[in-house]
Amino acid sequence: MVRMAVAMRPRWSNWAGTYACEPVSIESPASEDEIVAVVNAARAAGQRVKVAGVGHSFTDIACTDGRMIRLDRYDRVLDVDTAAATATVQAGITIEKLGVELARHGLAQENAGDIAYQSIAGAISTATHGTGATLGNIATQIVGLSMVLADGSLLTCSADTDPDLLAACRVGLGALGVISTVTLRCLPLFNLHSVEQPRDLDEVLEQIDALVDGNRHFEFFWFPHTDRVQSITNNPTAEPIRTRGRASTYLNDILLENSAFGLVCRIGRARERWIPALNRFSVRLLSRSEVVDTSARVFANPRLVRFSEMEYAIPRAAAVETIGELRAMIARREHLVGFPVEVRFVAADDIMLSPAHGRDTCYIAVHIFQGMSYEPYFRDVEAITSAVGGRPHWGKLHFQSADTLRPRYPRFDDFLAVRNRVDPERRFGNAYLDQVLGRS
Question: DSSP alpha helices (H): ranges in 251-340?
Fold first, then answer.
């Protein structure tokens, strides 16, 4: 009997291990021409195409049964205009590398999230954000971009030439094409004075407007089963850099914040009933920390403990009530939650599918340690946030569909019209986009 060799497909999984797929191939183009070649080859073979950044999205947004593109070799700074304070970069550049390269030219991003290894394309496509009441999510920094379309042509748009098209492309969910280059609005390089300190949750909620409006950046992490939070304020300063030192940074960021926390999480996974006591133990270890560093280094944090995450954008005016309902729900439903709840704030924007579209926004993120069941807790959180018109973070787990999302986005159908124009055959489609945008 003759045995036929079976070609094994490569396997890809996201950072959290929540989704995996087996593409026909995984391509790593190093130029725009090579991106075009991958798209054209997929079209000729009748295959779909998806771009996967570093895989930090918790959903199956990057999964495909066709060709997967990785942009890790397509990550250079192409042009910096210091007079205009703009930079044009290849889409695969990570937030960390971008910060280093901008600093060499005396520039910085005006805001960023806390995951430094995300690619700029992945960050803007899913509406990744930082915190700051007067600042939008990362996609609002984009003043122009280029994108390889399903027919292999190159689309370019900018705030000056086609702001409506840019309003679709800046948070495109990977549904419109392969982002090739982005041009970002930057700021002169600046330092931040960062203060982390433990506080009472009720005190923070009573002072929430003063804290959010009185600081360029404010956020807090609340530990369920306790009344304590770790608050973080970051404000521009002319002070010189004053860090904890390499040894102290390693001790705090790696050993204490990651390794020790990971051990507590593993104990909680093995003995779930111990989680409330473990949280009470953890908050007793919280302390005040104060540093001055460049904005890029303050924004970024190492994430070594893996987890599943859901995050919802709600109207800022509903923040206090929603957090109160969340606290009551965890107690009433007896959820055992070992991860802190993260609360951040951003300004309204005009991007079609931005969760902050048209309203000042509070982001509430919830997490469950890797390997533990997250769905019951996440569904209860989603019910609370949905009651106030919450919109899910596109890169985080949720249970919404096109039917439930359409009423929450005033320009949902405008985005679909752009998609129909640039990708009528759904070359960049997948199961996730079928779910959130519909199959038509």
Answer: 261-270, 275-284, 295-299, 319-333
pLDDT digits (tens, 9 = 90+) for 122-161: 999 999 999 999 999 999 999 999 999 999 999 999 988 8
* Residues contacting 121, CB < 8 A, separation 6+: 51, 53, 71, 91, 92, 179, 182
- CATH code: domain 77-188 is 3.30.465.10
Q: What is the pTM of this model?
A: 0.94
- Kindly state the tokens that stand for 57: 């999205």
Say yes or no to pLDDT of 293 above 70.
yes
Torsion of CA 99, 295, 113, 344, to 10 degrees: -170
Provide the CATH topology of domain 191-392.
Answer: Vanillyl-alcohol Oxidase; Chain A, domain 3 (3.40.462)
- Of 71, 76, 37, 29, the C-alpha closest to 52 is 71
CA distance 24 to 67: 5
Report the first-to-last Cα separation within the chain, whole angstroms.
47
Residue ranges of the domains in the chain?
A: 12-70, 77-188, 191-392
- DSSP for 364-418, please give it: EEEEEETTS--HHHHHHHHHHHHTTT-EE-TTS-----HHHHGGG-TTHHHHHHH
